[in-house]
Amino acid sequence: MATTPSSPSPPRLLRRLRERLRVLHYSLRTEETYVHWVKAFVHFQGLRHPADMGREEVEEFLTHLAAQRDLSASTQRQALSALLFLYRQVLGTDLPWMNDVIRPVPRRRLPVVLSPDEVARVLACLAPQHQLFGHLLYGTGLRLMEGLRLRVKDIDFAHRTLVVRSGKGDKDRAVMLPESLRPGLEAQLARAQVLWRADQLRGTGGVELPHALARKYPRAPQSWAWFWVFPQDHLSADPRTGEIRRHHAYDQTFQRAFKQALQSAGIAKPASPHTLRHSFATHLLQAGYDIRTVQALLGHADVKTTMVYTHVLKVGGAAVRSPLDALQALLAASGTSVVMGPLPAQRSSAR
Q1: Catalytic site residue 277?
Q2: Which residue of 44, 85, 171, 209 is surrounded by the most CB atoms within 10 Å?
Q3: Residue 292 catalytic?
């Protein structure tokens, strides 16, 4: 009896997930995050296939993240987004229970903001090779990855403008280019051009281009215009294709440098490179710029997002004067002074 050849086995779940994410042009970071949460969900449910599970298992997993792992609401929403993408976009399931899953509500937190003096101290403590990039983040309000992904063509010295391509939400925007950064950026471009010329001589694959632009413009990956402003000093393999090419500088490198600078400056705040963006926005509002201008520079879709910086201004500085300060001024005017020292040490009672 003749046997018919068996049909090829369907692609594995995670491979299908990655393929769908790439078709819809999700970033590599989002891809890695979604794959992580899908794997965590499957392992938590005893390696059962997601197609055999539903609302009850998803909510059980989210409860586990909140109760046992004590993760934040934003992290839980991230995990939920990954699972909903899996069911809707990969498994082709769009059932009513998906809209009924309890979504964790994130708490609105005030951003960490450095004073101008603190910014100056941190930037001065950065290692020399990182100072230009630190000044760029504070001077333009760019996100960390937006700064690292700058291309040569995105700098317009004539119009003193930087163009941010495919920022958050895959949106472009233009920001000011501080005149004080011009000499440093010109020197950085000269250093980057040395690496670019070396890559040309080696005949390497150039740099990564977004979406399908490399197929539309085959020579663009090797062109100077598309080269990174802040390239990595060595070649590396593309995590998706394995092709050897020049990547931009790693975000972890600057994050470590910023943390060391924060410690050297003696600043006891939970700051990160993103704090430079928060400080940029707050200091612009303090200087009298209107909130719509700041919104456009930051690339916020909703002005409500930008308004969080007005809350920082309302409670800080001279925005609201504490009645204690008024009391102290009244006592000083009457010739009465009150010195507030440390609390006296408590005596331990002997038993």
Answers
A1: yes
A2: 85
A3: no
Helix, coil or strand: residue 182: helix
Question: Do 155 and 229 touch, CB atoms closer than 8 A?
Answer: yes
| Active site (annotated) includes residue 309 | yes
Find the catalytic residue in 18, 149, 277, 278. Answer: 277
Lookup: tokens for 300: 């916020």
Find the catalytic residue in 18, 135, 143, 246.
143
- What's the one-letter identity of residue 311? H
Looking at residue 181, the DSSP 8-state letter turns out to be G
135 is catalytic: no
Q: Which pLDDT tens digits describe the chain residue by residue (351 residues)? A: 444 444 444 468 999 999 999 888 888 889 999 999 999 999 999 999 999 998 889 889 988 998 889 888 888 889 999 999 999 999 988 777 777 776 777 677 789 999 999 999 999 999 999 999 999 999 999 999 999 999 999 999 999 999 998 888 778 999 999 999 999 999 999 999 999 999 999 988 889 888 767 778 888 899 999 999 999 999 998 887 888 999 999 999 999 999 999 999 999 999 999 999 999 999 999 999 999 999 999 999 899 889 988 877 766 555 567 787 777 777 887 776 666 666 666 665 544
Is the pTM higher than 0.85? The answer reads: no
| Bridge partners, 184 (sequence order) | none
Q: Catalytic residue among 153, 168, 173, 191, which? A: 168
The encoded tokens of residue 30 equal 């989002």
